[in-house]
Amino acid sequence: MKRSTERILTTHTGSLPRPPDLLAMLEALDAGTVPDPAAFGARVRRAVADVVRQQVDAGVDIVNDGEQGKVGYSTYVRQRLTGFEGQSTVRGRSDWADFPEAAARAERRAAVARPACNGPVEWKNRAAVETDTANLRAALDGAQVSEAFMTAASPGVIAHFLPNQHYPSREAYLARLVDVMKDEYDAIHRAVKASGGSRPPRDTVVAALSVTSAFQGALGTFGFDQAGDTTLRIVSIFEATGTNTQTPWSWLGAIDYSAALPY
Predict the structure, then answer these.
(1) Cα–Cα distance for residue pair 11/8, rounded to 1 Å
(2) Phi and psi angles of residue 86, each rounded to the nearest 5 degrees, phi first
(3) Which strand (E) or helix (H) includes residue 235?
(4) Cα–Cα distance between 45 and 27 in angstroms, integer?
(5) Which domain holds residue 238?
(6) Is residue 85 located within the same domain as residue 36?
(7) Is the pLDDT score of 135 beyond 90?
(8) What is the pLDDT of residues 100-120, one digit of tens each?
(9) Is residue 83 left, alpha or beta, with left meaning phi > 0 and alpha meaning psi from -120 to 50?
(10) Cα radius of gyration rounded to whole Å, the chain
(11) Cα end-to-end span (Å), the chain
């Protein structure tokens, strides 16, 4: 992983706009209409090459594939995993009530399916991950970038957008997602390693963190200790009851765990 030693390196969160024609193909695929594999694969490769070039032209240092081959940053796993054939209800966002135009645009984009998990989660298309990494490597050939990265949905975000109706508990659902998605994470790691990328050891990261002090954060002013933990030692506990997401949380108390630390 590159560090901003001489200047601040620029990057982004991962997902970038897809070209309209590719988006139409992705939405059709998501709806169950499989496009011509050769045409779809070629269009995704061109889109990845184009989006990498656009990032370079814009001055982005650490680029990615823009998730061009995925219909969304979380629900794309439906095309790669089994078990997502259930029905689920997508709740409206209450914080958009004051922004009707944005809400209308979001409603038009709501065509992306968000089914529930109603069966065992297993791989059905591991090759898609290798295709993603190959497309990005090809797009990076000759590109002047500091580094590149790839994204993958976390178990938590999958569980949020594709709710569980099969496993006995949320914990069991997350545990299965962890086991399955590890294959995708490992594939990305292999691609990074093959490209000569490296990750700093934990000791180096902890040492860098320990230099941080008097950081002004949302929870107050803090730094990091020799273990890499925040110097904030008080944990506040809140309680939310019922299924109404608008119900205010109740503050139960706070715990100072300083005495429990081994250092």
Answers:
(1) 10
(2) -85, 170
(3) strand 234-239
(4) 17
(5) 202-260
(6) yes
(7) yes
(8) 777 776 665 555 678 899 999
(9) left
(10) 22
(11) 30
240 is written with which tokens? 């939310």
The last residue of one of the domains, among 170, 194, 218, is: 194
- Co-location of 138 and 215 in the same domain: no
> Which tokens sit at 181?
């998605």
- Residue pair 161/114 in contact (Cβ under 8 Å)? The answer is yes
**pLDDT tens by residue, 8-26:** 889 998 899 999 999 999 9
Asked if 229 and 216 count as a contact pair (C-beta separation under 8 A), the reply is: no
Question: What are the backbone dihedrals phi and psi of residue 71, each rounded to the nearest 5 degrees, phi first?
Answer: -70, -25
Closest CA to 16 of 39, 45, 50: 50
Q: What is the token pair recorded at 92?
A: 């409206």
- Whole-angstrom Cα distance, residue 136 to residue 148? 9
Cβ partners under 8 Å of residue 163, min gap 6: 88, 116, 117
Does 106 lie in the same domain as 32?
yes
* Bridge partners, residue 254, by sequence: 236
154 CB burial (10 A radius; 0-12, 13-18, 19+): middle
The number of angstroms, rounded, from the C-alpha of 179 to the middle of its chain's C-alpha atoms is: 17
- Comparing CA positions, the residue from 55, 52, 51 lying closest to residue 22 is 51
Is the Cβ–Cβ distance between 202 and 191 less than 8 Å? no
State the pLDDT confidence band at 127, using cuts at 50, 70 and 90. Answer: confident
